[in-house]
What does this fold into?
Amino acid sequence: MNDTQVDHSLCAASACPMLGISKRDADWLCFIHVAARPGDWYSISAELNRLAWLVDDVKRLRAGSGPKTRADIAKSITLAQRTDLLCKPSESTTAWFVRLEQVLADSCATVRQQEIES
It folds into this structure.
């Protein structure tokens, strides 16, 4: 892919690294942008890019969760010093995936709230 091509699997919001999974009007958006006002898209995308390591982990879990994938994600989480996000022994892959997506959503909501308050 070169600089003039667009990856149509990604969210249509400006510079968003997430996969587009929900349609809103003519655009495919990630689960975070689809529920947000277009005026908030830039700050959401900026936060998702700041957390690119976690976005990549969520995308890898969505694509498939074999033992190597889970081990690679655990390594990424450990390197980011967020061992609280490791898969819990009693947690299914789906539950882990949902929890990681919720961390992304919560982080974007917190950033947006801080912008409103400042």
User: Anything to note?
Assistant: The mean pLDDT is 89. The first helix runs from residue 41 to 50. Residues 7 and 29 are 13 Å apart (CA to CA). The beta strands are 22-24, 27-29.
